[in-house]
């Protein structure tokens, strides 16, 4: 599993609130992404820890994501992206410029049932579709190289967790800054 694969997971988790919030709120997820070649050969797995903060009055979502590769030599990596929502459309940009893109949300405003997304990364273009489920959310996506050929497919399943569990895992997964 390479750093590029970890980055790809970050591009497709988007604006999916649990209910239509009247004010700012946060939703937390823990999930796994199974990565395969287009013909189904396993390329590894990623574990994803997500905090999604919704700010309906400002029309944005801030998503903080920690990705853990099945390759033990790769450290856990944190990404922060901002989603700007305009009607049922959105634009996204990750703060370190790891990816950017746009998409369309389905369902009631701020109670989205799913979305489609296209993002640009250093590894290529990511095309994905997400659907909210009773358990959390599922995502199916593909990485398309500059030549237009699909390089990898991703099948993701994410369960809702509480804020305390998120903070516990985040603290354990991310390297501490030197004192």
Structure write-up:
With 179 residues, this protein is mostly beta strands. The protein has helices spanning 3-10, 163-173, and strands at residues 25-36, 42-55, 60-69, 77-86, 89-94, 99-108, 111-121, 124-132, 136-144, 150-161. It has one domain: Calycin beta-barrel core domain (Lipocalin), CATH 2.40.128.20. It is 11% helix and 58% strand. The protein has a 10-stranded antiparallel barrel. It is globular.
For the record, the CATH class is Mainly Beta
- Globally, the shape reads globular
Helix and strand element order? HEEEEEEEEEEH
**Number of individual domains:** 1
Nearest-integer average pLDDT: 87
- CATH homologous superfamily descriptor: Calycin beta-barrel core domain
Number of strands: 10
Strands side by side in the biggest sheet: 1-2-3-4-5-6-7-8-9-10
According to CATH, the fold-level topology is Lipocalin
Number of helices: 2
In which range does the helix fraction lie? 10-25%
C-alpha termini separation: 31 Å
Low-confidence stretches: 5-21
> What would you call the structural class?
mainly beta
Estimate the strand proportion.
over 45%
Give a nutshell description of this structure.
The protein is mainly beta and 179 residues long.
Keywords, separated by commas or semicolons:
mainly beta, 2 helices, 58% strand, Lipocalin, 179 residues, globular, 10 strands
Write the layout of secondary structure elements.
Layout: H1 3-10, E1 25-36, E2 42-55, E3 60-69, E4 77-86, E5 89-94, E6 99-108, E7 111-121, E8 124-132, E9 136-144, E10 150-161, H2 163-173
Antiparallel strand pairs: 1-2, 1-10, 2-3, 3-4, 4-5, 5-6, 6-7, 7-8, 8-9, 9-10
């Amino acid at each position: 599993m390479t750093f590029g694969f970890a980055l790809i997971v970050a591009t497709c988790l988007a604006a999916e609130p649990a209910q239509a919030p009247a004010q700012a709120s946060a939703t937390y997820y823990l999930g796994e992404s199974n990565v395969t070649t287009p013909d189904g050969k396993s390329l590894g797995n990623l574990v994803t820890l997500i905090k999604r903060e919704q700010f309906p009055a400002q029309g944005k979502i801030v998503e903080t994501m920690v990705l853990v590769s099945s390759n033990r030599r790769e450290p856990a990596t944190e990404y922060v992206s901002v989603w700007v929502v305009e009607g049922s459309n959105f634009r996204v940009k990750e703060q370190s410029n790891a990816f950017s893109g746009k998409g369309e949300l389905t369902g009631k405003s701020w109670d989205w049932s799913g979305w489609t997304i296209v993002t640009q990364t250093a590894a290529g273009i990511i095309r994905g579709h997400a659907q909210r489920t009773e358990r959390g959310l599922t995502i199916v996506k593909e990485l398309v190289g500059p030549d237009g050929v699909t390089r990898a497919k991703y099948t993701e399943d994410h369960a809702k967790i509480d804020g305390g569990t998120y903070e516990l895992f985040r603290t354990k997964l991310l390297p501490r800054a030197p004192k």
